[in-house]
Write a structure and sequence with these properties.
heterodimer; A: mainly beta; 5-stranded antiparallel β-sheet; 0% helix; globular; B: mainly beta; 7-stranded mixed β-sheet
Amino acid sequence: KQEVTQIPAALSVPEGENLVLNCSFTDSAIYNLQWFRQDPGKGLTSLLLIQSSQREQTSGRLNASLDKSSGRSTLYIAASQPGDSATYLCAVSGSARQLTFGSGTQLTVLP
Amino acid sequence: NAGVMQNPRHLVRRRGQEARLRCSPMKGHSHVYWYRQLPEEGLKFMVYLQKENIIDESGMPKERFSAEFPKEGPSILRIQQVVRGDSAAYFCASSPDGNTEAFFGQGTRLTVV
């Protein structure tokens, strides 16, 4: 059974800092990995999707990497802003195509 | 192209009533997934449907919960005889073929009083 763990559970940083969020998964037989953002009381916004054959994806200030063999992914956020404050969720998709989510990292960027 | 539409956004039901949650996938998407987010917990998969077919319902509670995705109209998640423990945010996601990125709706927040 796939399990996804995210570390840290919460993170508070001053504005402008670069930061890294970590995600690990137990079963390396994944189809893809997605990073989402969730604001309080809101839905999920997809940030980046990495196919299992890829090593990284970039979008603006965000860069996600994937090391399938070790079961790890990182989300790098450059030059953080208060508007980046949210919960960041990592999810992996297996052969059944359903997503298995981690519990998230709650990020607070202080002005 | 509108995103995944869920309604209602908020739903209040008394214990024992039925709750019906609707999800209209993005245009051209024929694969729908339902997830539940209990308070202070992560999102958990419930069911995966294609038009008129249930593909995987391994995450659905065995009793009181059912889902459908008819040929015409939205996907429906139905909860019969709701209990307080059903209070949660229910999210729907859709994808065009089950192999590519899934897009999520804003969720329905169910409160059972």
